[in-house]
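Anyone? Bumping this.
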Amino acid sequence: MNNRRILHHPVLGTMPERNAVHFTFDGKKYKGFEGETIAAALLASGVRTLRVHEEKETPRGIYCNIGHCFECRVTVNGQPGVRSCLTEINDGMVIESGKRQPTPLKRKEIARHV
Amino acid sequence: MKDSAIVICRCEEVTLEELTNTAKEYKCSARELKLRTRAGMGYCGGRTCRFAIDAILMEATGNQTPDQIPLKYQPPVRPVSFQTLGGGCHE
Amino acid sequence: MYDAVIIGAGPAGLSAAIACAKWNLQVVVIDEFMKPGGRLLGQLHQEPDGTWWNGIKEANILVEQARALGVDIWCGVSVHHIEEVGQGWRVHTNKERIDTPKLLLATGAAETPAPVPGWTLPGVMSIGAAQVMTNVHRVRPGKKGIVIGINVLSAAITRELQLAGGDVVGMVLPPVNPITKDAGNPRKVMQSLLRISHLAPSAFLRMGGKLSRANWMQKLALTFYPKSGVKMWGIPIHLRKAAVQINGEKEVESVTICSVTPDGKRIEGSEQTMDVDFVCIAGGLYPLAELAAVAGCPFHYFPELGGHVPVHNERMKTPLEGLYVAGNITGIESAKVARAQGFVAGLSIAKETIQSADSAIDKHLENALDEVRKIRSNAAIQFHQDIHAGRNKMESIYKEQFS
């Protein structure tokens, strides 16, 4: 067990036992717990980067953590645009980070391909 | 610190410099500023940056914040798939 | 068919549902988050009398009460549009469409950013995000962090991070830009902090609270502000330092801070770098009223309530038939005020739904309104100055223009 989880809290108490779930993120195997979000399970495993900006390729992680900013969106079992901060992790989930997308209508992009 | 280093709209990566210059040059409304720079037009619908955009506009144009919301909200306020909008499966 | 649909399962939405259900209305509460409770879930602070305000417990009390009264609570459901249809409202969600005669918007608040160069790097998050990670998910936002933005909310949450064993090196101001003119100004920030000085376990700040009412005193306090900051719960608060850059290749590695004058001007050559792996951005809160906006509700801008607020009266009615608001969507205040407002909204909805000549409900409504006023007056922390003035202004706008 790593130190990223807060198992004991002076006021909130000790975390109850939870069932483990296994999932993959970009092909790598991870373990999380039932009832937690994808974002929490990944952060607890030391994963902070969830996608890159579709055009600029700059890395992104969680920002607001409550579904407002959409920065943490990932692809879950083939469905893109899923907010990892609001979505519960399930056993066997296949999660992919957001990748750079071709922008064929931009001038720079055309130059790159000519 | 350069204004070109500060991203204001995270979704579309629009900088403070771009927004300030555009607001000053065109004496824009919030809507025009959005259309010219794409700030606030990204995935989050401007939820994160709209306050910043309002503040930049006020600074650049010297106007007071109006009572009606400067940057209009449009439905859907969350991105939805065409399937959901269509009310079910249309395979 | 539901008598009322409530959007938002925070303190306002849940207590509104309870009030409705007590008068035998069938209601459903919809929320995007996986658990009911809203932002109440993350809250954890000590009251002036020493007792703990545990948001998870408070939320559970409301949820259990609501469920016992037969309230339906849908979690993980997003509302993306609402529209007026015939005698009521149509609510579009990612799951299904619901029609209802009465609709309550209790969507709470969203965070305003304090943009800093480098703030898109993974590891940078809003202060609310760190709160939810820590207290709700029980995962640390990182090993060592810094808080950018010094205000009532960020001080309270920084204390929560520390309580959970988090290592926070301190709180600093954001750099001054058009968005952070006030938040980056030491003098203005000090004035806002004086409103919580009575809660601070720091002699310096308590003294500051008494002495610094006069402007010249505040200037003096800021001029001699200790280089190492003033500690509050052991966390250094740097009113004379600002973050200028968040550094890192792929994720946060460090933050560059510099000293500023009492007016927030950067002192060249004072830069120093602190190694951190997470950064919390605290710009404050604004009422999240997007659904009221798409519904066509009139708005008014109130800096003292945190931004643009849908016009409403004390009974939480908007000028649009069948549309109600409660909680932080009506202005930034504490969860206790939101809960009390929700109860008013629920009774208002019940009163208009049953339309009985029974005066019992009027009595309940009067009591609930008194409760809101009492809680507001007794609040230990006020997010905005002049909250009463803002509320009064809203009431007179509604009366003059819409009733």
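Late reply, but here is one note on the structure posted above: The longest helix of chain B spans residues 50-61.
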